[in-house]
Amino acid sequence: MYPINLILDNKPCVVLGGGHVALRKVKGLLEAKAKVTVISPQIVEGLAKLVETKSIIWQKKCYEQGDLTDFILAICAIGNEEVNAQVQKEANQKKVILNVVDRLEFCDFALPAKIRRGDLLVTFSTNGKSPALSRYLRCKMEREFDETYANWLDKLVQLRKEAIEKLPTSDDREIFWRSALSDDVMELVRAKKYDEAEASIRDAISGFRA
Length: 210
Fold this sequence. Notes:
The chain is an alpha/beta fold. It has helices at 20-31, 45-52, 81-94, 131-141, 147-166, 170-180, 183-190, 194-207; strands spanning 12-16, 35-39, 57-59, 73-76, 97-100, 113-117, 120-124. The protein has eight helices and seven strands, in the order E-H-E-H-E-E-H-E-E-E-H-H-H-H-H. The protein starts with 11 loop residues before the first strand and ends with a helix.
């Protein structure tokens, strides 16, 4: 498995199924800013509310061959082995990346447990072998990854731009950031002394020599 974070901004994605598992998958896709369609003859209340607010599109029907047309990603949360096989066949034919809930052998990707704080996304994956362990690790780490790092990330955006202007090559920038984000700087961040942390990074940018 190759670890990547897909950029799904306004990309068409489909969730097959209308139960509570499907609802969780839909919420994850919406967090990633995907354009979500749900295909299911019935949907739970949480999905119905998303339909009412026009957050998702609902096709009130059972899955049929051809329903994956025009989507780049599909999640199947139906729980029927025959349907799983049909969906996998169509996904392979149309080059749609597919996740089938609880059936790793049908999947092109596994969905990790995640902690999201603004633009900061921390994931925990067991390659689909034990989602329960991924969830446990996420719960253990949620207190560690509070809003502190998300706030620092917002400040790093400008610092990164300044580093790009000062340091001409990607190799220079990689060397710089490995040393600039030191334990001392991150201690300032954890103490929410963002101004001091910023000043330290800017001094490092000014004094950097490859």
